[in-house]
Design brief:
Length: 454
């Protein structure tokens, strides 16, 4: 139920930002208005109270002068000043009040301001005096009509101003928020318009140097990576299909040949069987490599990391290669002792790929030299051949999947163009890196750097 209501009451960031700032601004404005009103009311009461104190001193002096109470003069003064005067005897009984003449209502004090002052519609002040002519205390009361009017005007003005300010805040806040968040709206529309068939759309970079520009640049960079990945995936599928098409066509051709008449000819039968086996082996190798790369792309390989001697592994690769290949000189001039913690099987596979690649593109009688050295707590393994070399413009691409070098190399060695990609992936997964140097006609040199425990 709450989730359904939440979906229906989905508010935009602009709305939530505007409401939040409006509430905060309104709270501050209301608090300031209340504080200002209370302060102004206190100032008015204080001013009136001080005035009554001075008036009480004047009346006390007036009573002390003369032989009789100046009641007529007090009544006239009370009428002119708008101040109610009441005289009390020593028993606090009223002796005389100007209210009898003026017809003023009896006031009932409710809020004590000081020990001698309180507030209702009147502010009154009491002043004890020396017993003179039967008078022991003077009480003055000031009607607060004007003060209440001032407060009402102030409160109304503040309320109107606050309301206008709040409405203005809502208007300006919504427009500013909408303008500031416009790049995000554009980003949303762009993201919705992107599909697998069209990954070329990019966001316009905003002119301001703030977080939104950083977000826009990051979003465009993400789109670049997605597009590159998608293009690589399409190229990968196309290249894999192309590589599989040739052996399938060869197998299908020999199968049709045998089906028609070749099975009666022993030589043709043997040739067909050999070709089919060769193409099947090629397909198996290709599929294994594709599965290896697909597994690495999806989850990465769970490496069996164990410490092992790199020099012993290199000696092992040299011995096995010499047994397999007798047409080339497989040399190991130097092989420093070094211990490396990694996946021994995969590292050996990478070395075999690089050695096989060197043999493949080195004419018979040429040399393949496998050396290792220790430099700066790292093991440097070099595999150098005296083969046909690689053109400079092709060096940046040789580790790309399905990339094949020039036609001379392709005709010479064949292959699907996945071996070097796998070797590079294995080396990097084992915390190493690989580099290549080559010149046409002068051979190729692969350099592998691995962290060593020495």
């Amino acid at each position: 139920m709450s989730a359904t209501i939440g979906k229906r009451l989905r508010f935009s960031i602009t709305f939530k930002t505007t409401v939040t700032y409006t509430l905060v601004f309104s709270f501050i404005l209301i608090m300031l208005s209340i504080l200002l009103t209370i302060s102004f009311a206190g100032f008015l009461l204080y001013s009136t109270d001080r005035a009554l104190q001075k008036d009480s001193q004047y009346i006390a002096a007036l009573i002390s002068s003369g032989d009789e109470l100046p009641l007529e003069e007090l009544a006239n003064w009370s009428t002119m000043q708008g101040v109610l005067v009441t005289l009390y005897d020593e028993n606090s009984d009223p002796v005389w009040t100007s209210a009898e003449k003026a017809g003023s209502p009896v006031y009932m004090p409710r809020i004590q301001l000081t020990p001698t002052s309180s507030l209702d519609e009147y502010l009154h002040y009491e002043k004890p005096v020396l017993l003179t002519k039967g008078i022991a205390k003077i009480e003055l009361a000031q009607y607060l009509y004007e003060e209440m009017g001032y407060l009402a005007i102030l409160a109304g003005s503040l309320a109107a101003t606050s309301l206008f300010a709040i409405l203005l805040t809502i208007f300006i806040g919504s427009r500013v928020s909408r303008k500031m968040l416009r790049p995000i709206d554009n980003m949303t529309r762009t993201a919705r318009s992107i599909s697998a068939g069209d990954l070329n759309t990019r966001l316009d970079t905003v002119t301001s140097h703030d977080e939104l520009k950083d977000l826009t640049v990051t979003f465009n960079e993400m789109l670049d990576r997605i597009q590159n990945s998608f293009e690589q995936q399409k190229s990968f599928v196309a290249d894999a299909s192309h590589e599989l098409r040739t052996p399938i066509a060869v197998i299908q051709g020999y199968a049709n040949l045998l089906d028609r008449w070749g099975k009666e000819d022993k030589a043709v039968l043997e040739e067909s069987i050999a070709a089919i086996k060769s193409e099947a082996d090629f397909m198996k190798e290709l599929v294994d490599k594709l599965l290896f790369l697909a597994s690495a792309d999806k989850n990465g390989h769970a490496l069996q990391r164990v410490p092992f001697a790199l020099n012993e592994l290199i000696d092992e690769v040299i011995r096995e290669t010499r047994l397999i290949d007798t047409e080339h000189h497989i040399l190991g001039n130097s092989n420093d002792k070094a211990v490396f913690t990694g996946d021994r099987t995969l590292v050996k596979q990478a070395l075999r790929i690089l050695v096989d690649n060197s043999i493949k593109y080195t004419p018979a009688g040429g040399s393949v030299i496998i050396d290792s050295h220790l430099q700066n707590n790292k093991a440097l393994i070099t595999i150098e051949d005296t083969g046909i070399g690689i053109a400079a413009e092709e060096l940046p691409h040789i580790f790309e999947r399905f990339y094949k070098s020039d036609r001379a190399r392709s005709r010479e060695g064949g292959g699907a163009g996945l071996g070097l990609s796998i070797a590079k992936l294995i080396i990097e997964n084992n915390q190493g890196n690989i580099q290549v140097e080559s010149r046409p006609g002068q051979g190729t040199k692969f350099s592998i750097w691995l962290p060593s425990a020495i």
